[in-house]
Write a structure and sequence with these properties.
The complex is a heterodimer.
Chain A lengths: L1 H15 L34 E8 L6 H20 L7 E8 L1 E2 L2 E2 L1 H13 L3 E5 L4 H14 L2 E4 L12 H5 L9 E3 L4 H15 L4 E6 L3 H16 L3 E7 L8 H8 L5 E5 L2 H13 L9 E3 L15 H5 L6 E5 L10 H9 L7 H18 L6 H13 L5 E3 L2 E3 L11 E8 L8 E9 L7
Parallel strand pairs in A: 1-2, 1-5, 5-6, 6-7, 8-9, 8-10, 10-11, 11-12
Antiparallel strand pairs in A: 3-4, 12-15, 13-14, 15-16
Helix pairs in contact in A: 2-12, 3-4, 6-7, 12-13
Chain B lengths: L4 H51 L6 H19 L9 H31 L8 H22 L4 E2 L8 E4 L2 E4 H23 L1 H11 L1 H6 L4 H27 L1 E2 L3 H16 L4 H20 L6 H15 L14
Antiparallel strand pairs in B: 1-4, 2-3
Helix pairs in contact in B: 1-5, 1-8, 1-9, 1-10, 2-3, 2-4, 2-8, 2-9, 3-8, 5-6, 5-8, 6-8, 9-10, 9-11, 10-11
Classes of the chains: A alpha/beta, B mainly alpha.
């Protein structure tokens, strides 16, 4: 609600149309965030009203708060820091926040509607989001048609970008992709979790439960394939829709097969938090490790609204998770700046969202040299960001994207829950991180 | 009193057969799960069936009344009683549970009466579609009130009953499961006795049978219908308490699916028939758990409604019949 009003206010300000003469920036754009490094002092004619926007399209409310809010905060921080340096080529930055959570759970239809809103706001130069792969699949056809850049910090489903499925989402402009992502795809995340459970934790049998959604089924499949390849035994695979309230019979049936671990293939808002809570109470599963992908490892400490540890409570012990992003950042001032600004540690994808904003800012800085109006600036941002020849210096390190929009240097970070942290409520602690090669290089 | 085939022998026979089949198919552990889930469905189904029996209204807000009950219980436990974890002293536990149960049931009873007074009574003589639409409206109102009060994310309920288990016939049964099933059965028996043996129960039965005639005989119709809504909502409140205790997490839209399944249970047993609703609740839970055991979790809802369709095709009035003439 609050952000909706903010967006409306921004749009209203645009309608007033106070020409471009108002802003006279003094500082040059930051050196680390804007590799283009042009030293414009006044906003060009393209910068209508002296302000352009970065959109965010994330699940912000209810059970998704722990996912979306810290991610959007990453963008807010990047905008604030850039504005302190005078904006981009003399043009100030604003934010247009959209929330794709419907009744507290991410919703592809709501996401598609939000994407249309962002496309219609001519001042939006690029969008950070979405968070969930299922939402991305509903949004990419819209952004592809409009030529509006999306940079997702968190999408991991392979089909979002990679052909043949990925091609079906960019039919309008097959050669002008509009979507890039910093997160590692599930063809890396699922197998990494399988390796971790099998090799690091030494468990040879596993029970897999997914949430029937795009992301959950995809990551569950890649986990399952890798775990079998390693010689492990997948005792049972179940799919439970997000409307499930009673997971006890599922886990009771699985416990009879004595799995040494459980893989929660899905997200906490779509039921994996409840599954963890109830699965723990079933005889035989009281102490086995529960491993989840980034939909479970939200890195929110116990007590944060909608966070996995908040929902599962005391059942959160022996829980491990993977995040498709680097934990060790290239720019180590980020965490401190974030904590100062928002009074809490960053979420799993705060830094990645910050990196997405940096990419949009850097691309805008480059595009501003030739842009004549908002539309050409928007197209310039898209073209610069998706160009696989361009490399961006971001908080995650040097990033560039292949022809499908996938990050060519993906990382996976591993976390585990430590129940002694956050005053006994539990919090995630970093275990290790691994780097991989371009998922589309083979 | 002679033993009546329709009222006693048939329900007992159907109930026993259903339970034995369930046990044979599921084994001890899953049977305990199904019984526990069934206890919740049965408590809600009773409300659907009682309201339908007396005013022929399918109260689609009933699932949400159950949901409100779970939130009221959570609120009483956390805010009023300040509970956060398991209570290990048995005497304290019994005392606290009684307080929570009693306060929730009474509170929900009044909410049920309130809804009847302001949403349904003014429409009692309106075309039958009008109260049905109102019921759907009430359902949304309740959901949105709870969503704005407690937020749209799942809310944790303190698990005041320790999750200890005891070994029983090859399985491990939680004390909480036993408590839930016993509570549901006790409430159902109490309801049967109330409807069958008391003055108010007789008023309810006569109102259900013929409202005008009952009124002529001096039955206060408004009061009787209000009491029916009170009891229906109180039972849903009891269901809400055990839902929170057992699953440990509640959400504002919880009432929709659970309510739909409980409604199915009521129709399955024969809508208007309280014994049927109870048996229907356990059967629906059994079908759901059995679908899960077979590995078809995604299809459990399909299975539930397939059973409903089959029963309605072959026994349109439900398993036990609608008990026309003395439904309540």
């Amino acid at each position: 609600m609050k952000y909706g009003k903010l967006g409306a206010l921004g749009a209203g300000a645009l309608l007033v149309f106070s020409a471009c003469s108002g802003t006279t920036a003094t500082a040059a754009p930051g050196t680390s965030t804007a590799p283009g490094g042009s030293s414009a002092v006044a906003a060009g004619a393209w910068c209508v009203g002296g302000t352009v926007k970065i959109g965010t399209e994330l699940p912000m409310s209810g059970g998704e708060t722990a996912n979306g809010a810290p991610t959007a905060n990453g963008v807010k921080l990047a905008i604030k820091q850039q504005n302190a340096k005078g904006g981009v080529a003399g043009c100030k930055l604003d934010i247009n926040v959209q929330d794709d959570a419907l009744n507290g759970v991410h919703d592809p239809q709501t996401g598609a509607k939000n994407m249309q809103t962002l496309v219609a706001d001519a001042a939006v130069m690029g969008v950070v989001g979405p968070f969930n792969s299922g939402v991305a699949k509903a949004e990419i056809p819209i952004s592809n048609g409009a030529g509006l850049l999306m940079c997702s910090p968190a999408n991991t489903n392979n089909g979002v970008t990679q052909p043949p499925e990925g091609d079906t989402y960019r039919k309008t402009n097959p050669t002008k992709i509009s979507y890039i992502r910093t997160a590692s795809p599930d063809s890396i995340q699922g197998p990494s979790a399988a390796d971790y459970l099998y090799k690091d934790l030494g468990k040879t049998s596993v029970y897999i439960i997914d949430d029937t959604e795009t992301f959950g089924v995809g990551v569950g499949d890649t986990f399952q394939a890798e775990f079998k390849k390693l010689g492990g035994n997948v005792v049972k695979r179940d799919s439970a829709p997000k409307s499930t309230t009673d997971y006890t019979p599922l886990f009771t049936a699985a416990a009879a097969l004595n799995p040494q671990g459980v893989y929660l293939a899905g997200t906490t808002p779509t039921g994996m938090g409840l599954a963890l809570k109830q699965g723990r109470t079933v005889s035989g599963l009281e102490t086995v490790p529960f491993v989840g992908p980034d939909g479970v490892a939200d890195l929110g400490p116990g007590g944060t609204q909608g966070a996995t540890i908040t929902i599962a409570g005391a059942a959160s012990h022996d829980v491990y998770g993977t995040v498709g992003s680097a934990h060790d950042l290239a720019d180590n001032t980020f965490t401190a700046a974030y904590t100062t600004e928002f009074g809490g540690a960053p979420g799993a994808y705060s830094a990645a969202a910050y990196a997405c904003a940096q990419i949009i800012i850097a691309s805008l800085d480059k595009a501003s040299a030739t842009a004549t109006d908002l539309a050409s600036a928007r197209e310039g941002v898209r073209a610069n960001a998706v160009n696989s020849a361009n490399t961006f210096a971001t908080v995650l390190g040097s990033l560039n994207f292949d022809k499908y929009g996938d990050n060519v240097h993906p990382f996976i970070s591993f976390y585990k829950v430590d129940m002694t942290l956050a005053g006994g409520k539990g919090d995630w602690t970093f275990v290790k991180q691994e780097s991989f090669s371009d998922p589309n290089a083979q | 009193m002679t033993v009546d085939f329709r009222r006693v022998i048939r329900p007992v026979a159907i109930g026993t057969i259903a339970l034995l089949t369930e046990y044979a198919l599921l084994g001890t552990q899953q049977f305990a799960n199904a019984l526990t889930l069934g206890a919740i469905y049965a408590l809600i189904a009773l409300g659907y069936t009682m309201v339908y029996g007396i005013v022929e209204l399918i109260n689609f807000a009933h699932g949400d009344i159950f949901m409100v009950g779970s939130f009221l219980a959570m609120w009483i436990m956390t805010t009023v009683l300040g509970l956060s974890g398991p209570v290990t002293n048995l005497l304290n536990l019994v005392g606290l549970l009684s307080i929570v149960m009693f306060a929730t049931m009474v509170g929900m009873g009044f909410i049920g009466m309130f809804i009847e007074r302001f949403a349904y009574r003014p429409l009692r003589h309106a075309p039958r579609l009008a109260p049905l639409i109102t019921a759907i409206g009430v359902s949304f109102i309740l959901q949105n009130i709870i969503s704005s009060l407690f937020g749209p994310s799942p809310v944790n309920v303190p698990q005041i009953v320790p999750l200890d288990k005891f070994a029983f016939m090859g399985g491990k049964i939680g004390y909480l499961n036993v408590f839930m099933v016993v509570l549901a059965v006790v409430l159902m028996i109490a309801l049967q006795l109330f409807v069958g043996r008391t003055r108010l129960g007789r008023a309810m039965r006569s109102t259900a049978q013929d409202r005008e005639a009952a009124e002529l005989m001096g039955v206060d119709i408004n009061q009787t219908i209000a009491i029916t809504f009170f009891i229906a909502a109180a039972l849903a409140g009891a269901g809400g308490v055990i839902q929170g205790l057992y699953f440990g997490s509640i959400k504002f839209d919880l009432g929709f699916f659970v309510g739909l399944k409980a409604f199915t249970a009521a129709v399955l047993g024969g809508i208007g028939n309280t014994t049927g609703a109870a048996i229907g609740g356990f059967i629906i839970a059994f079908v759901e758990v059995y679908a899960t055991v077979l590995g078809y979790t995604q299809w459990s809802e399909v299975a539930v409604f397939t059973v409903l369709i089959l029963v309605l095709v072959f026994r349109p009035s439900g398993l036990l019949g609608q008990q026309l003439g003395e439904r309540a």
